[in-house]
Specification:
Blueprint (H helix, E strand, L loop, with lengths): L4 H8 L17 E7 L2 E8 L4 H18 L5 E8 L16 E8 L7 H14 L4 E5 L7 H4 L8 E5 L2 E5 L1 E3 L2 E5 L14 H13 L6 E7 L6 H9 L4 E6 L3 H14 L8 E6 L21 H9 L3 E4 L4 H8 L11 H19 L24
Parallel strand pairs: 2-3, 4-10, 4-11, 5-9, 5-10, 11-12, 12-13
Antiparallel strand pairs: 1-2, 6-7, 8-9
Helix pairs in contact: 1-2, 3-10, 5-6, 7-8
Length: about 375
């Protein structure tokens, strides 16, 4: 008996496709039908069939084709599972005239992320780079204090006929923070959408001008603000700050995982270990590993991301931040040297990251004239 495709398709139209909403032909579940004499090969693709539904469908196809087409036909059925759709990476819109945007993150609060951000920014500025800092810690902004800007208020300037906020500048770094718009003792009690709206205003309603680097001081953890940042801005990379302590490393690991999610996919430029060791002023050659030794370095090795450097736990770093003159402003000190080396490594990883990534997202270094952090 000659079997035709029309006969087979007519029979399959009487069978419902599990979970597809329609029969096997109408729903598109049948991918292919091949006929060789009295042998019929059928390929069926379903979204996520259970084993029971799969077996039931195979029995139904066999029974129907034997009854409706040819009772002696040899039937081969191949049921496969549809591939899950590939999630498009969340990418934001570029900010004009800003070459590179780097998120400074930490899984846990209290590890000195804002202190690290301030010192990296000043180190880059002293190397001749044009640098900005966006304080994205809406609920606990501390960047204004570290830059000696408490009580300052941004002015409004006209850019192409549009009013924009002018970032406040100190130590060669342009800064914007929600702290400029709140009183020192005022708690910011906002739900996620309101905080997100305020953050977007700081990003897009600001006259940042020409920048080589915009460093974003993120709040601790992984939440609304982090998602808003990756949705709003095309981050060129992220730096994760942690102490060597196990509880901090556990959260830092989660922070790395967030940026490495398939639909976020922000390159990790590296891990910085803060408060790595304590060195007393009277014993400068002694190191005391109060929070553990090389924990963040081991984390970086485990996650196969670069280790950018270890910053010590020294009283002068804390005092410098508290009085609004970060330690990166010091002259010829070990702390200054360590901060400079860490900043250079971060920039090197930023520039070299194209070697590790597909060319769909190219780092464009165009404005960095005179920035000695860049090795030509």
């Amino acid at each position: 008996m000659k079997i035709t495709r029309d006969q087979v398709k007519k029979a399959l139209r009487t069978i419902s496709a599990p979970g597809e909403g329609g029969d096997l032909i109408e729903s598109g579940a049948v991918q292919n039908i091949q006929i060789f004499g009295d042998e019929i090969d059928i390929n069926v693709e379903l979204a996520n069939p259970s084993l029971q539904a799969r077996k039931k469908l195979e029995v139904s196809i066999l029974k129907t084709l034997h009854q409706e087409v040819y009772e002696k036909a040899k039937i081969n059925i191949n049921v496969t599972v549809k591939k899950a759709p590939v999630q498009e990476p969340i990418k934001g819109e570029p900010v004009p005239d800003i070459d590179s945007i780097i998120a400074i993150s930490s899984g846990k609060g209290g590890v000195g992320k804002s202190t690290v951000t301030a010192n990296l920014a000043i180190a880059l500025a002293q190397m001749g780079c044009k640098v900005g800092v966006l304080d994205a810690d809406i609920y606990g902004p501390s960047i204004p204090m570290m830059f000696d800007m408490e009580g300052a208020r941004p002015l409004s300037v006209q850019v192409d006929g549009v009013s924009k906020m002018e970032p406040i500048e100190n130590y060669g770094v342009k800064v914007l923070s929600i702290g400029f718009f709140t009183k020192p003792d005022q708690a910011v009690i906002w739900r996620g959408p309101m905080a997100t709206k305020a953050l977007k205003q700081l990003i897009f309603d600001a006259a940042w001008g020409n920048l080589d680097f915009l460093l974003i001081d993120l709040p601790p953890g992984t939440g609304d603000i982090h998602l808003s940042i990756v949705q709003s801005l095309p981050l060129d990379g992220a730096v994760v700050v942690s102490t060597p302590q196990s509880v901090a490393l556990t959260d830092a690991r989660k922070g790395i995982a967030m940026f490495q999610q398939e639909n976020i996919n922000v390159p990790i430029l590296g891990v910085i270990e803060n408060m790595a060791y304590f060195t007393p002023a009277e014993l400068p050659d002694h190191k005391y590993y109060i929070f553990g030794e090389r924990g963040a370095e081991y984390l970086a090795a485990d996650k196969k991301v670069p280790f950018l450097g270890a910053l010590p736990l020294i009283q002068s770093i804390r005092e410098a931040a508290d009085v609004g003159r970060p330690a990166a402003l010091q002259e010829d000190t070990l702390v200054r040297k360590t901060i400079d080396e860490t900043a250079r490594k971060m920039v090197e990883e930023l520039i070299h990251r194209n070697d590790k990534l597909p060319p769909t997202k190219v780092v464009k270094i165009s404005n960095m004239v005179g920035c000695s952090a860049i090795k030509k």
